[in-house]
Each structure stands twice: as structure tokens, then as C-alpha cells.
Amino acid sequence: MEGATETEPRAVAVGILKGGFGKTTTAVNLARELGERNDRALVIDLDDNGHLTLDLNHREAFESETNHAHAVLIDGEDPRKYVVNVVDGLDLFPAHTELESVQNALKDVTMGSTRLKANLIDEVLGEEYDYIIVDTPANRGKLADNAMFATRNIIIPLRPERGYDSGLTNTVQRLVLEAREYFDLEILAVVPNNLTSRIDQQTKDRQLLEEINSRDRIQPLVPNFAHITDAEFDAIDAGESDFKPGIRHRAAINDSLDEGLPLRDYDAACDQLEYYDELAAIVENGEVTR
User: At what angle do helices 23-38 and 251-258 cross, to 10 degrees?
Assistant: First the structure.
């Protein structure tokens, strides 16, 4: 099986301070590819809307009488009691409908920003799982703080929609840079996804790709499947290249979650799987490599 065998176990948050930018889709498919490459991976749903948990058909856990997130993060119970299986190679620590109450409780407990790390991730990372992916809330708060502190790594998904530039800027300035005042936090990748348009014209897709490939601090974080040089843009404009950068829209990606499955388990022939596989390699290596 492909995968890194000499890398350190690693946890990674997938987050952006804006909803609707592919955070959940990226998190579940990245985690699934890490599980495929390394036998087992865990995805943690910390978003109070519970989309990832509900999409993966674990409504019962989301609405359960026991608030397992409170039990683990506040009361220190064993997180293994509440992990559920998604498919072979991928497990889930589900969200709960009362996650907001957990966020409020974290404000009042000792070391409230460290509970995810101490009570969940440190308990299973390197033991049960070499890789853990955290789907974070799309807003500031104690749950997001916990995700950043626990993982020390973030992947930022983007879509070519209105507000992508402010979403990226706010995430870097208000989440990453503020966190770095207290601990190391690395951006592993900036990931354009759900692209649908031609890029030999000034579409939103083209604008997004031009921006992330031209910003000095962002360009090194763009995966190879979305990295475009000026010469490659010229070739695309001249009709001399058929490179289609970014994770492209495919019905199978949306349909897979409608069926409660990661993409690999819904359509293993989808041509976008190789890009999620590259994201998994970035997590394993701890950086984008050209």
C-alpha cells in the first residue's frame, strides 16, 4: 500500500472562517485517503452544524442523549467509547447537537483551549491512528481554538465564489497569525475545490487560481494539482495546454455524501481522487513538495 512509513503521526485541521467553501467535503475525503494509504485514520467533527456527521449517516450519534463531546472534552471520558466506524479504514468522532454548550463550557474550565489535544487527540494519535483530521467550525471560538492548538496544522479550502479572498485573508489574519502569538501553527495547503469553469477566460475560477498562485506567501502552499506558473497560464490561454487545475466539480463528489460515503467508496474511478491522494501525501510529508 502507498503511504509514508517514516513520518511522524500528524493531526490536521481543515478550516476557513467562512461557510460553504468545501471544508467538510475536503475533510472527509482527505481522511479517507489517509486511511487508504495508512490502514486507519480518524476524522473529528467539531462543527456544531454536524454536516459531516449527518452526511456520513450518524444522526443517532449527533442527536444522542449523551453529549459525548462534553463527556470527552469537559469530563475527560475515554474518547474511544464514542468513536464510530464510517468505512474500512476510516473512523469518526461525531459532532453532537449540543456542541454549542460545549463551546460555552470550555470558556470556564481550566486550560479550556487544550482539552481537544489532551483528552482526545493525544489519547489516540500514534496509537490507534497515525493521522487525524479535524473538521472545524467556520467561526472563531473555543472549539476552533482547540482545533488549532491540538493539531498545529491547518489546510484551508477555497471555492471560486464571492468572498473567497476575504475568507482566506480573515483565516490567515484572525486565526493563523493570532494563534502564532501563542504556539506554532503551520498552513500545510490552500486547496481550490469545486471548480467548474474554463480558465482560459476571466472566470471566477481563473481569478481564484491567479490570486493564490501570485501571492508570495500563498503560492508555496498550493498543491501541485492547482499550481500554475505564468508560462503555464500563457500556454492555457494559447490553447496549448489542457491542464485543468484544482479539484473540479464532479457529481460523484456531492452524490457520495448524499449516500453517506466518502468519494472513494462511492466511485473509485472518479478522476478527482488522485487530488485527494496528493493532499494525503502533503499531510504525511508535512508540506507541499514540488
Answer: 80
pLDDT tens, 108-151?
999 999 999 999 999 999 989 999 999 999 999 999 999 999 99
Residue carrying the nine cell digits 506567501: 217
Q: How far apart, in whole angstroms, are the C-alpha atoms of residue 69 and residue 74?
A: 8
* pLDDT tens sequence across 83-104: 999 999 999 999 999 999 999 9
8 Å CB contact between 22 and 248: no
Amino acid type, 117? K
The letter for the amino acid at 57 is N
Planar angle of CA 98, 107, 182, nearest 5 degrees: 120
Q: Is 269 helix (H, G, I), strand (E, B) or coil?
A: coil
| Chain position carrying cell 482566506 | 168
Distance of CA 115 to the CA centre of its chain: 20
**What are the strands, taking DSSP E only, across 6-93?**
10-14, 41-45, 84-87, 90-93
Between CA 62 and CA 59 the distance in angstroms is 5
Q: What are phi and psi of 255, to 5 degrees?
A: -65, -30
Hey, which residues does 192 pair with through a beta bridge? Answer: 158
Are 159 and 22 in contact by the 8 Å Cβ rule? The answer is yes
Fold of 10-283: Rossmann fold (3.40.50)
The pLDDT tens digits for 2-19 are 444 468 999 999 999 999
Q: Which residues lie closer than 8 Å to 205 by C-beta, 6 or more apart? A: 160, 192, 195, 196, 197, 198, 199, 246
Residue ranges of the alpha helices (H) in 129-224?
A: 142-151, 164-170, 178-179, 204-214
Closest CA to 25 of 276, 229, 196: 276
Q: How many angstroms separate the CA atoms of 191 and 159, rounded? A: 8
